[in-house]
Amino acid sequence: MEERKTLTTKDGYPIADNQNSLTAGARGPVVMHDFHLSEKLAHFNRERIPERVVHAKGAGALGTFTVTKDITQYTKAKLFSEVGKQTPVLARFSTVGGEKGSADAERDPRGFAVKFYTEEGNWDMVGNNTPVFFIRDPLKFPDFIHTQKRCPANNLKDPYMRWDYWSQSPEALHQVTILYSDRGIPKTHRHMNGYGSHTYSLINEDNQRVWVKFHFKTVQGIQNLTETEAAKIKAQNSDHATEDLWDAIKESDYPRWRFCIQVMTEEQAKTHPDNPFDLTKVWKHADYPLIEVGILELNRNPDNYFAQIEQAAFSPSAIVPGIDFSPDKTLLARVASYNDAHRYRLGTNYQQLPVNLPQCPFATYQRDGAMAYGDNGGSTLNYEPNSDPNAPKPSTDYQEPPLPLGNVAVDRYDHHEGNDEYSQTGDLYRLLDEDAKQRLVDNIVGSLGQVPEEIQLRQLCHFFRADTDYGMRIARGLGIKIDPSMLPKELQELKA
What we know:
about 500 residues; alpha+beta; Cytochrome C Oxidase, Chain J; Catalase HpII,  Chain A, domain 1; globular
């Protein structure tokens, strides 16, 4: 027989009575030191976290992604490394404009987000059920979303706001047409496609890049609701799509999507009739046919909605080696913006929550902040570069080709290249009088003398490059005899 569990406080104190508060007498007031009552009420007051600004109403499930076709000619990402390989996933579907308690059957784009828990880190494919969007410049996003929310005067949804905005934003017409077409109200989350919408890039083992579009084609088939059907469903069950997803998985009718890509070479992009990185445009399938990659299957419902779905944080910045960005302006803004939203909604350490935690080894120098889990890095260093041979270090194995942006390329340029780090320091040293020079040297020796000789020698090289006398004085102060082999090459003629 299973041992009966005893109710406790969050600190582990056993509770004898969970029905009656501590009071001064049977009819007296509640006393201040009833910590069990205080804990329950304080936690209750904080149970609701801020809802997502967009995509607040959503449902999700867990499952697997299985590779069915070889695309290693395009990408070195290990989740695609061999046919038959499986990767665990978490998917979330949502409406865009509605609040957390809004209806599933609204005429609205649907969010389609998938978190792949790969051996190289988490890859978040954060898209919609449409291949395009209303804007192509991220500066317009807050204004657009305001038109989809509530009127600041009366707190009502207002057709004037959205049509006033759209009538002055012609780039939105493509998405507006999709929104008001038959596909504007998907029947359920299972009966719609998903798209990365943006242009991304894939990079192979030879560091060659191609541009790609991501597509998830529903195996269940496209099914939609008319306005009349949607109105009837909303009156009966505002959570119909959430319930449908849960019930289908519970009954082992697992929803599936074919994951496909479109591929465009860099040369093709140069002569493409439209801007291939424009979020309001598609690539014609006749020119860039779909290439099947694998099957996404959702086969497990969450054990706890809040922990696994509400706290799930998807961001385009979560990529893995072999998958990268493009010059799509809106995508690049999302890369920065989504993390900021999660830190506001969930907290600084949102990536440490179990649902967001990579299921592979990882190492950072980030420490502290609210809700830091585990040992917070223990006694290890929290900065880099450092001299600890066992500490995490960058690896050039993961260097990817520069991202071309017109006449320039985005890359991690060496900020030392072409810069003289020493001349002005030497000029400053030589301006000092003898007493000031000696005080400077004494101050440095007093501090530098407290660290290992390995670091002293490395730092001495910098002082010597600035001024030979500067380096010699500090060396003598540290008791280090200068061997020419210790010096920078250009100073090795110097004798001790």
